[in-house]
Amino acid sequence: MLPGVTPPPTVSAEYLAADGTPAQPVRVLALNGQLLIQGAGADRSVALRGLRWPDQAARRGHLRELVLPDGARLRATGAADSAAWDAWQRQVGPGSGWRALRWAGLGALLAGLAAALLLWLAYAQGLPLAARGVLALVPTELEARIGRATLEGMDGEQLAPSTLPPERRRQLEARVAAALQRSGTPLAYDLQWRRSRDGRHPGPNAFALPGGTVVVTDELVQLLEGADDALLGVIGHELGHVRERHGMRLVTQTGLVTLAIGALIGDYGSVLAGAPVLLAQGAYSRDFEREADDAAIALLRANGLSPLALLTLFERLAARAGQTERAGEPDAWGIAFASHPPDAERVARIRAAAASAAHPPP
């Protein structure tokens, strides 16, 4: 997955306007320091800074209520909605971290640290192996359903239908299919084209979802205009994620961690309710990304192309980032997340692959 496609934290709630209008269902997103409220009865934004979030003492049963500066309210009710709200608030509000731990007491803090250490050991040593075992039991239809549900969610919030000319899409689809055929590694995949709904996020990007769906944005095609070899390499990177089932492996590993946390703290409800948010924000590991880079390099080589074509992506992304900074626009969806190997490392590996192809060992 290219950096910068992580969806913002969202939650479902009811919106009660200050004028007494009946409650309306809305979707609430936290993005760039703003709380975005979207629904048939409301479409507004409120600064996150200064909001008075419901704390533990103010909660009544399953009721969660956030009062906005103008007197309007956001409300969640019911066990499932309140648990989802709590998981969401822990990500975007101030009612988490050291403040929450202070109220929980020193004993809870020590227990949490011990649990974190155990989870880290389990993650580093046993989680990948366990996830592979579970993954072998996952039906392909379930994997496809997860991918479809994820794309539907992104279509509702971040993505819009592509405006690329149909002929251009067909040309790119034919080239990808021919490249895979020449590589001798057939693969079931579904290439989808989208654009950023707001014109900025996720911007130039491509990403793979469980079940074989690969999404390419119009902005990426435009960024790599005149460099179709680089675009083929990027799509080959995502096809590497598909071949290795990285998306479903991420879901499986995160699910195992979620269940382990529930067993340690004895609170399955809130943990499981927050799992969709955690999964939506998951990022591929560095090992996954290296495997996908290797797949892109192999696809280019099999088609008589130099892996150096991939460097065009880094060059144009860097130039675009510089333009964004000069325009004074914050780049909240930057191209360097911690989960990805540093750009310098990836560039060095690509250059080494190109050099080894040019000078094979005797």
Automatic annotation (TrEMBL):
<protein>
    <submittedName>
        <fullName>Peptidase M48</fullName>
    </submittedName>
</protein>
<dbReference type="InterPro" id="IPR055518">
    <property type="entry name" value="DUF7092"/>
</dbReference>
<keyword id="KW-0378">Hydrolase</keyword>
<dbReference type="InterPro" id="IPR001915">
    <property type="entry name" value="Peptidase_M48"/>
</dbReference>
<dbReference type="Pfam" id="PF01435">
    <property type="entry name" value="Peptidase_M48"/>
</dbReference>
<dbReference type="Pfam" id="PF23368">
    <property type="entry name" value="DUF7092"/>
</dbReference>
<keyword id="KW-0812">Transmembrane</keyword>
<keyword id="KW-0862">Zinc</keyword>
<keyword id="KW-0479">Metal-binding</keyword>
<keyword id="KW-0472">Membrane</keyword>
<comment type="similarity">
    <text>Belongs to the peptidase M48 family.</text>
</comment>
<feature type="transmembrane region" description="Helical">
    <location>
        <begin position="100"/>
        <end position="123"/>
    </location>
</feature>
<keyword id="KW-0482">Metalloprotease</keyword>
<dbReference type="InterPro" id="IPR051156">
    <property type="entry name" value="Mito/Outer_Membr_Metalloprot"/>
</dbReference>
<keyword id="KW-0645">Protease</keyword>
<keyword id="KW-1133">Transmembrane helix</keyword>
<feature type="domain" description="DUF7092">
    <location>
        <begin position="11"/>
        <end position="91"/>
    </location>
</feature>
<feature type="domain" description="Peptidase M48">
    <location>
        <begin position="167"/>
        <end position="352"/>
    </location>
</feature>
